[in-house]
Amino acid sequence: MLKIGYLGPEGTYSSYAAKLYDSENLKIPFNTINEVLNSLKSSETNQVVVPLENSINGSIVEVLDFLASKNNYHIVAELNIEINHSVYCLDRINNEDVSVVYSHPQALAQCYDYLVNNFKNAKHKASNSTADSYNDLINSTEKGVFIGPPWMKDNETVMVIGENVQSVKNNVTRFVVISDKNKNKKTISDKTSIVISFSEDSPGSLFKALEPMAKKNINMTKIESRPTKEKLGNYYFFIDIEGHFEDKDIKECLSEIKEISSLKFLGSYPKFI
Q1: Which residues are within 8 A (CB) of 202 and not within 5 positions of it... i.e. 6 or more apart?
Q2: Looking at the DSSP assignment, which residues form a beta bridge with residue 47?
Q3: Is cis: bond before 203, omega within 30 of 0?
């Protein structure tokens, strides 16, 4: 039986994504994204389901840094989950009396406009997850609210103050499944992810690395930079392209890129549609 890690507790969007990905194998919750990722290294899990990027707030840097580091883990699947945040309280409370709002930092950022307009005097306090923010409010001595997923309204101990309160309504998070195996066969629609870097900063380095894709008419769906942390001005470039590693053009393209950069293959996997 596979052991699949996710950002817990039960009731988070990561929990929902993990169940959507796999309904049969054992799911193991962890307190932070770094704990989820490190569970692969400690062999507590075989796979993990983690958020990689959000349409409002961008990428999750802990996951990018993990993927870029020296390890042999690969992306084997992706899921796009629509995110709808709701605001809850434990007892009836006037907006002006709210002194604290709890939630995961991503949720707080995604709902910033609503929070500023409705709870002007409230502090924003980070929770490990949107589900954990409920427990944080219970244990707090302050009057407050928390932001959580829509299914929290089924909890009889909470009251809904607002629904679908994110600043941008088209709020989608891309989750990826990272595994200790790389075993995906070709499907009718695949995506390949790589990360590249350069030992020296020289004019045209990135252009030369991307040029083989243009020449072979390979569609690049994402490129994002992230500091290597080695020295100022050194970056990793995370790239997604359409197609599978076993495709002739992609295999040749990656070989050309590898000649002029340090390339790490992150995986080929079915594209979420």
Answers
A1: none
A2: 4, 179
A3: no
Fold matches, 3-83+173-179 and 190-270: no
pLDDT at 273 (0 to 100): 63
CATH number of the domain located at residue range(s) 190-270 in this protein: 3.30.70.260
Q: Return d(Cα 244, Cα 186) in angstroms, integer.
A: 6
Whole-number Cα distances in Å, 84 to 55, 96, 105, 156 = 12, 24, 15, 20
Q: Please tell me the CATH code under which domain 86-163 is placed.
A: 3.40.190.10
Percent of the chain with pLDDT over 90: 72
pLDDT in tens, 83-108: 899 999 999 989 999 999 999 998 99
The tokens for 210 are: 């991307």
Q: For 15-46, write each residue's pLDDT tens digit.
A: 999 999 999 999 999 999 999 999 999 999 99
**What are the sequence ranges of the domains in the chain?**
3-83+173-179, 86-163, 190-270
pTM across the whole model: 0.84
Q: At what angle do helices 33-41 and 61-68 cross, to 10 degrees?
A: 20
Yes or no: domain 3-83+173-179 corresponds to CATH 3.40.190.10:
yes
